[in-house]
Amino acid sequence: MRLRHVDAPYIANKIAIDLANSGIVRFTSGLEKIVGVAQEILEREVDLENRVDVRVKELMGEHEEEIQYSEADQKQLFWMLKRRLAPEYGLLLDKEERFSSIAHQLLDIAWNDDLMEYDVPEIKVKNIIVKACFDYFRKFDEVEKAVLDRMEKMKRKVVQGSEEYDMMVTKLFEEELRKRGMM
Length: 183
Known about the structure:
By secondary structure, this protein is mainly α. The chain is 74% helix and 3% strand. It contains 7 helices and 2 strands. Helix 5 crosses helix 6. It is flat.
């Protein structure tokens, strides 16, 4: 699953909660500051990946006739081009490398801005952040399923795609995240 803007605040909350619950980190400026910094980093990552995707689509558009003539698998071609362009943009496609990079960025900012303190090796704190990212994506599918199940069981049906539907899904999604200690 790829990072999306909609996931950034939830992952940022998960990171902050896991750091707070670890017992090895003390926030000097409150939990909200860490959430904000983590969310900014995650959103920059999403924007970076979106820029790469746009460039890949542009390249595919420039060679559309050749692609159709050769009957190339567009999905496979997209990923081949994305893997080729990613290093030029500084985009890490491997999840572990990407989450590790996010953790390092967060720790650098937190250290420089004096947002948290810890007396353990930095790698332990970094591992909590990386694990929080992986945990979010592991639990996302079950949260999404629980939300959709709740939406189906509602007496009053809401039109999918409507503003009311989106607000309801967001509310239920956040409730499910809270139940699982992710928010």
